[in-house]
């Protein structure tokens, strides 16, 4: 049992002694209770959550429907192991995911524990199906911290530094960044340029007939919430079709209503061959999935895919509840409403503070760049903003390859009062960073 008599200082000292510093902490307080978009620490301090466990809590902390489903399942059994004896929640969730994901074709789904596991297994499935080896991701991408997914990830520090060598046959293609396009180019010219660069990549870096899959985040997450042009995304998918390459949409951070649609792929009118899902799938319980075309998913033989804890029944029941909640509480609409409020606030702050740069959002996936007087990325000021927030009642995260993006991933069930309270702290954080 947890000793709840220990103070915050006691627990912080134990953390320093027993947990390596390689596991970072943006906030060193100790959570005691959480509900919706509010966390209470073990000294009674209140925290408005604009981080959502890095986009994991779209339905919020301890949603009563999720809690009820998990408690009910815990009384039945904890984990028989699906590859030892099957259970209903795994099968029902697989069916549900095949139903709700984009694509009019027959689908199958397989469950794992984490986002990185989902990406690894999507690559395995694509390699098995195509009998090819090469994997293509994109500049600024983030796909995980395992050896293979580190190679697919763009940012070196802190994710890759001194952890090599990485898995071979992994390549990173160019990805458009509309706010950084050359001034002399129109938007359409820049999109044409980006498409040409992508196609040239398969001449200069890797031959398309050797590529098993192209893995794309419909909106780049850790890369800074970079939203690509719709035409670029569609051209990438079409290129994959023409060359027999499996097109994989990594919807780990964008999925489950975050962008105002159930999946971000819907904004781009694409139907990925495979999709990787995790984070908000199970409201904080470890669960991920690969979902996609049946003929691709079914290419592997029995025993070639899986994992000991993959598809744990408590997580499966939580996920089934999450999907119901998204529909019942209209969280797609709520995401758009939250995003609009955040965007309006950031525009107001931009009028007051010179260091706010490009503001971008898709639904409630919102970000703002922080730059210096010359327009260069300002990582130090960004850290000051998030530090102030995390010291004054607001859980807030940064992102971006250059560490100069403040991102917002609040639970989609956040109340108007919680949102108002969080924005008031955010206002003070930007004011403090201006001094």
TrEMBL record:
Keywords: Aminotransferase, Pyridoxal phosphate, Transferase
Highest taxon in the source lineage: Bacteria
PANTHER family linked: AMINOTRANSFERASE CLASS III, LEUCINE_METHIONINE RACEMASE
Official protein name in the record: (S)-3-amino-2-methylpropionate transaminase
EC top class, as a word: transferase
Family classification: Belongs to the class-III pyridoxal-phosphate-dependent aminotransferase family.
Organism: Thalassobacillus devorans
EC numbers on record: 2.6.1.19, 2.6.1.22
Pathway of action: Amino-acid degradation; 4-aminobutanoate degradation
Cofactor: pyridoxal 5'-phosphate
InterPro entries linked: 4NH2But_aminotransferase_bac, Aminotrans_3, Aminotrans_3_PPA_site, Class-III_PLP-dep_AT, PyrdxlP-dep_Trfase, PyrdxlP-dep_Trfase_major, PyrdxlP-dep_Trfase_small
Known catalytic reactions: (S)-3-amino-2-methylpropanoate + 2-oxoglutarate = 2-methyl-3-oxopropanoate + L-glutamate; 4-aminobutanoate + 2-oxoglutarate = succinate semialdehyde + L-glutamate
Gene Ontology MF: a single term: transaminase activity
